[in-house]
Amino acid sequence: MTSSRKTEVLQLLRNSGDYVSGQQICETLGISRTAVWKIMNQLKEEGYEIEAGQNKGYRLNGTPDVLSLAELQSRVKTRMAGKELLYFDVIDSTNLEAKRRAEEGAPEGLLIVADKQVAGRGRRGRSWESPAGANIFMTLLLRPSYSADCVSMVTLVMALSVAQAIEEVSKLPVRIKWPNDIVVNKKKVVGILTELTMEADYVQYMVSGVGINVNQTSFPEEISATASSLYLEKGQKVNRALLVQKSMEHFDENYEIFCRTDDMTGLIGAYNTLLVNKEVTVRVLDPRGEYEGIAHGINEKGELIVEKEDGSVENVYAGEVSVRGIYGYV
User: Fold this and answer.
1) Which residues, other chains included, contact 96 with Cβ-Cβ below 8 Å and sequence gap of 6+?
2) Is 330 domain-assigned?
3) Binding site listing
4) Bridge pairing between strands 322-325 and 202-212
5) Nearest partner of 185 among 239, 228, 220, judged by Cα
6) Deepest in the core among 122, 247, 325, 329, taking most CB within 10 A?
7) Is residue 146 part of a domain?
8) What pLDDT is stored for residue 122 in this prediction?
9) Is there a single domain that holds both residue 75 and residue 55?
10) Residues 228, 230, 235, CA angle at the centre, nearest 5°?
11) Rg (CA), the chain
């Protein structure tokens, strides 16, 4: 049975919220009763709770925590972000795959999602822990018309969008550690890596990769003090496909606002509301010399506004500069 048919059946059941008759499914999709029966059985085998009522039809009562093409396609209905979807059980890196597809001419809005990565990378080339069946690894392809100067801000837009999605789905106290780490209870739960390819003096394409620690149950001792998962912080599992859906919906909306001005003007308020560094003392790890000051949020360029002890103000660019709390990671 093709994934597209499963996608269509899931959409019908999910959009209805109640019973959908077998006859209606047959007529809507142009398939036989036998085909409907086979699809329902296949979905049940995958963990979907489907109730069959006599003279009523079928109703979706529960969804397993699965990342599959059918599950994702039945959920993600956005204008741009995720309008095309590719899913992999295992992949080297969603960023690498997005770049390969971009070179082949893939359109803006292509979303690559994987259950497991074997060559994931974080900021400054750090490896990203990627077990199967627990987390989200996804990369969105963008083909911007703005200049390369705006690229660092897109990472902030993605961070804001994913943070809003996590807050909506999990109800956890989500915060952003400038510029793009997402933390819950001062522990990192999301890493974002945005990369671009230039041609002459314009951006040919860019990819924004997101790794979310969703249902991971433990971490290596060396990072357990600073890393966590939504499951560990909430005490119950979070549906990953729903989180992908909401992340793309929020990005669709936020990116449209961003593109109106090619900067953070329309998103400063929303971003600063979630900023864990706001109005606290931070240490700026600048290669030219470290210093401390009070962070007052971001400006329209996505720079962190830091007031130093002598009263002078520095606008910190996200490039290779890191910001830490004076007592640790946050």
Assistant:
1) 119
2) no
3) 93-95, 117, 121-123, 188
4) unpaired
5) 228
6) 247
7) yes
8) 53
9) no
10) 105
11) 22
Number of folded domains in the chain?
3
- End residue of a domain, out of 256, 274, 292: 274
Instruction: Kindly state whether residues 138 and 262 are assigned to the same domain.
Output: yes
Other beta carbons within 10 angstroms of residue 61's beta carbon come to 10
Q: Is residue 12 located within the same domain as residue 138?
A: no
| CATH number of the CATH domain containing 113 | 3.30.930.10
Q: Which domain holds residue 50?
A: 3-62
Residue ranges for the known binding site for biotin are 93-95, 117, 121-123, 188
CA dihedral 13, 164, 166, 109 (to 10 degrees): 60
- Looking at the chain, list the stretches that DSSP marks H as alpha helix, in order from N- to C-terminal side: 3-16, 22-29, 33-45, 69-75, 94-103, 151-170, 230-234, 240-261, 268-274
| pLDDT in 10s for each residue of the chain, 330 residues | 466 889 999 999 998 888 999 999 999 999 999 999 999 999 999 899 999 988 899 999 998 888 999 999 999 999 999 999 999 999 999 999 999 999 999 999 999 999 998 876 554 455 555 678 999 999 999 999 888 888 889 999 999 999 999 999 999 999 999 999 999 999 999 999 999 998 877 889 999 999 999 999 988 888 888 999 999 999 999 999 999 999 999 999 999 999 999 999 999 999 999 999 999 999 998 888 889 999 999 999 999 999 999 999 999 987 667 787 766 676
Tell me, yes or no, whether 45 and 126 share the same domain: no
Q: Are residues 130 and 102 in the same domain?
A: yes
User: What six digits make up the tokens of 108?
Assistant: 């803006």
Distance CA 93, CA 128 (A): 10
Do 74 and 204 belong together in one domain? yes
pTM exceeds cut of 0.70? yes
For residue 144, whether the previous peptide bond is cis, meaning omega lies within 30 degrees of 0, is no
For residue 220, the 8-state DSSP code is -
